[in-house]
């Protein structure tokens, strides 16, 4: 008689897989991908290391899944910020502030997603992540051109420039080598976000935000 997996067993597998995902992200959020060791993840999730490899082909595939899920949350937040009322410039400013502000509030998580050296499998997800942002910005820029609040330009190129500018400007502040103090952190972050947004909007429109 052929073996048939029961619904209860499928549920247990799904729960174990979710625990592995949650615990891996917990490790990444604390110390980046380099701190997410399989033995530690297995211990936190309460499973054997072999169980992890039954759910994920390799450590790199597990990390790629984590990266995909985490970045989708960030892209969704930027899309939400672009959905506010107002003209395209105002909506783009809202989205840029969301991007930079969330990164600076969770520097280790943002470092892992934006700049931490990763395996090629995860780097592919990072490229998809950047493209997802560029796609959102491109639509908003095209809408702004139609509205007349953004000058005629190559919207695709401009959108990729926005993603590059904001990501590159955050690398230094997010780096784990940076010494961070709670004192005045919010003020410094707000000043940095303002500067990033000003640069990006000025590049798009030729005027300061």
TrEMBL record:
DNA-binding region boundaries: 37-56
Keyword Nucleotide-binding belongs to the record: no
Recorded GO MF terms: DNA-binding transcription factor activity; transcription cis-regulatory region binding
Protein's name in the database: TetR/AcrR family transcriptional regulator
Domain HTH tetR-type: start-end pairs: 14-74
Lineage per the UniProt record: Bacteria, Pseudomonadati, Pseudomonadota, Gammaproteobacteria, Pseudomonadales
SUPFAM superfamilies xref list: Homeodomain-like, Tetracyclin repressor-like, C-terminal domain
One matching Pfam family: TetR_N
């Amino acid at each position: 008689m052929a073996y048939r997996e029961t619904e209860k067993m499928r549920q247990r597998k799904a729960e174990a897989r979710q625990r592995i995902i949650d615990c891996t992200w917990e490790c990444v959020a604390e110390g980046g991908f380099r701190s997410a060791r399989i033995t530690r993840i297995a211990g936190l999730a309460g499973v054997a290391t072999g169980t992890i490899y039954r759910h994920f082909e390799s450590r790199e595939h597990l990390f790629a899944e984590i990266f995909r899920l985490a970045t989708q949350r960030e892209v969704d937040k930027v899309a939400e910020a672009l959905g506010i009322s107002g003209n395209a410039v105002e909506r783009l400013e809202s989205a840029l502030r969301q991007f930079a502000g969330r990164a600076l509030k969770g520097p280790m998580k943002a470092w892992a997603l934006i700049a931490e050296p990763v395996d090629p499998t995860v780097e592919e997800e990072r490229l998809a992540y950047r493209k997802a942002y560029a796609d959102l910005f491109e639509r908003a820029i095209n809408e702004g051109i139609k509205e007349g609040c953004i000058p005629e330009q190559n919207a695709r190129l401009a959108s990729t420039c926005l993603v590059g500018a904001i990501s590159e400007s955050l690398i230094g502040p997010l780096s784990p080598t940076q010494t961070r103090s709670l004192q005045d952190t919010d003020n410094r972050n707000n000043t940095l976000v303002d500067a990033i947004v000003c640069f990006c909007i000025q590049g798009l429109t030729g005027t300061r935000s």
